[in-house]
Request: fold
Amino acid sequence: MSTSDKTPMNGAESLVKTLLDSGLDTCFTNPGTSEMHFVAALDHVPGMRSILVLQEGVATGAADGYFRMAGKPACTLLHLGPGLANGLSNLHNAKKAGSGVVNIVGEHAVSHIELDAPLTSDIEGIARPVSHWVHTSLSATDVGADAAKAVHAANIAPGQVATLMLPSDTAWNDGGVVAQPIAPVARPAYDEAALEGAIAALSGPDSLLLLGGAALGEGTLEVAGRIAAKTGCNLLCEWSNSTLERGAGRVKINRVPYPIDQALEALVPFKRIVLVGARAPIGFFAYPGKPAILTAPGAEIIDLCKTSQDINDALDALCQGAGAVDVAPAHVAASTLPEKPDGPLDPDRIAQVLGRTIPENAIVVDEAITTGRSFFPATAGAPKHTWLNNCGGSIGYGMPVAIGAAVACPDRKVLALVGDGSAMYTVQALWTMAREELDVTVVIFANRVYKILRGELTNVGVSNAGPKAMDMLSLDRPTLKFVDMARSMGVDATQVSDCAALEIAIETGLATKGPYLIEAVL
Amino acid sequence: MSTSDKTPMNGAESLVKTLLDSGLDTCFTNPGTSEMHFVAALDHVPGMRSILVLQEGVATGAADGYFRMAGKPACTLLHLGPGLANGLSNLHNAKKAGSGVVNIVGEHAVSHIELDAPLTSDIEGIARPVSHWVHTSLSATDVGADAAKAVHAANIAPGQVATLMLPSDTAWNDGGVVAQPIAPVARPAYDEAALEGAIAALSGPDSLLLLGGAALGEGTLEVAGRIAAKTGCNLLCEWSNSTLERGAGRVKINRVPYPIDQALEALVPFKRIVLVGARAPIGFFAYPGKPAILTAPGAEIIDLCKTSQDINDALDALCQGAGAVDVAPAHVAASTLPEKPDGPLDPDRIAQVLGRTIPENAIVVDEAITTGRSFFPATAGAPKHTWLNNCGGSIGYGMPVAIGAAVACPDRKVLALVGDGSAMYTVQALWTMAREELDVTVVIFANRVYKILRGELTNVGVSNAGPKAMDMLSLDRPTLKFVDMARSMGVDATQVSDCAALEIAIETGLATKGPYLIEAVL
Reply:
């Protein structure tokens, strides 16, 4: 704990200073009464960029996207239990993505909690299911040290959710002490005992190197490409990935498909599977009469390196063991420009348009759900870009994550591909994009239905869905007008319904500084 | 448990039938894969009105409003932990309001939970902080009985939040058994030992009868008015009330003010306070150097009847003990029509407009925050109406609660008075109002600032807020265009900025069948 800063300060100021000293300089917030001293400290302690959101789900999703692209946590500042609760589902997604987030949650003054005021709730109880680390500060003196611990916890690989409750008296009382950053924990070693078996397993087309997490960077994928070239193994990654580097010149990798039958088919050839940063594939949901374990029965699965472990080392060791260090990588994507598609929009044609328009260095946030399942092949040869998936399955992640990515990378274009049902979950994100003039082009795929659920009805064995059931999956009564909605929050927008117009609209959006929304009607 | 229904059925069908047999016929939902069998059952089992929302905060808020006006719970159908999480803050509000809600939360099939799929989370952990009753069904055979227990728990006075997890295999497996409703628990008796003291305490202007919960109905208020007439005691109710019957011809009751200083001033005269359905007033928040207990030091507080106990009996006994049974009630509101205000909108003039336009039998949902603090005096003499407050303090309650009230009372006009900051929390509610053609007139008070927080900065002792702090409390960059936003979700709308236009707009909204939104720019 540092005592170098001799100016008397309150707990809130020591908190902001400690966060800054620990490398955190971005805060997504919707504050309330109990957070006013933190808000005031933003002016007294320069260096923290504070971004206002209209609903906390935007704040937590933005923190997720920020971590994925900045490689360090942002903090959120949330108002008591209900503010945290509103951000909970995107914290669930962040946790599943391995994103580090530091939540600062205001709490009543310690003496006030027992009075059970209207806003009193069990904040720690709300935090625990989505947090790796939960703590309530008990005095102004503790706040700095607690904040350093929270940042430390959030930085544990691949990234963790840390939630610190800040009772308002610990914020306003004097006695704050700025704490030194705690040295980060190195990633633990991969399972060296499994290395020999992993090297032996990767041989020929019935073997698979399944990658996830930090294995999906440009450099690590290149190592994987060398291994594949030398051993003849296949490469796949999980369906949902925090970030995946792809595009022309990079080693191309396909995802294990989402639909169970397609996933089973994709995985049935593999007798030996080595996991590096990935988990053995399982079904997103259970379905009656279908397996939940997607790998072929009897397949040998070697868990070489978990997503929290040293993935770089694991891949280097595999590469060396396979004698592939000097081999040219396989599966390097060539630069390709899909043909210009014509006519009305469908998923394959949209993929072609994307393959034609994704710019160099773009960040693509993919929450296109059913529409997006066919986006990968036609975009593999686009200029180099980063692809982000929803790892927790809670919809409403796309636009908030795009905010965080744009804040983290102001020099890169962000393309957010979002289904209409998903977009409405956190539609308030548009306002923050406008307010912060973020360079995000949002494409809403308006099929006016929770289309994934139409398929899921059949998958779970419902063969006789009636009109009331179908009505619960339908978004067309009334039709959502996304162009008006975007403009109502200060974001310019257009509606398109054919391929040529979509291509022009995406080019317009990318050429525009600031946010732009395209409603693509399917 | 009933076995009278001999048709084989799956767990989901037994659930819907049991809910119907237990008197629940309304479901607010945004379902997902794990809820598809419940959705399918809606067609096979007639009688359950199912209402789709675009975000679960709307569903849980609607269930809160429904309970307040229907006097019985609705159910919600939510998708796994994240769907519940999105509804959590309005469940917090419902819990604090004493509203009964039955949440049905889909869960993965029992065998799938241990696989830790993307959407897997600790649902019971998420549910517990906002629920009085939490249970996970373990087999299709159990689902009916579990549902009956959930309804029973939700009906415990004044109303409780019951959350039942439904693993998808317990929904799709055969073996469902419809359960008989469980007889409701009667409200426990008030504290009879305190009666004599309470009767003695209520005497003269330094005594107060403080009412809450079920004491705020027309009949109970009339009894309280008799007691006041006979004893000379004062009447007040809490700041936040689930429902308060008011208007011309009813006994008028003021609320303990929200601002600490005003509350202290309002309560300082009282040396003896009798609580019936209310709690002793405390501050919404703690503030440095201000008391949290708002009653005068040394005041005698007699807790005659808690909000869960038999409030009718308590008031009758008080009335009898005071010899007030045949006395005409005091404080009966006369019918008054405020003067027609002129010029730009301010809180007092808006109150006058409301006093002129609230129609007979209206339901007023009040989330007007700062703008609304002065609404009570000028509306006290309007035709009879019901006033609903936010009892949990989590903003975003207004429009969802208005949905539930409109569904519960299709023959009554609903007027939702909402601050702009609050409205944006659950703005998706507008779409459901349009879809269900609900008779709700929404007035958004657009002061373009989290105005309450501007005051709170000073209250918590921040005297030197800088530009970054003020920016976090401001909604004017960009300006939210509520008229466009409403229309984008199918709700007709208008913007007004003076008193005459507001009066016309409210009259137009009330005369329109279906929803209407008025952006009142302050």
Observations:
- Residues 1-5 of chain A have pLDDT under 50 and may be disordered.
- Chain A touches chain B through 101 residues (CB under 8 Å).
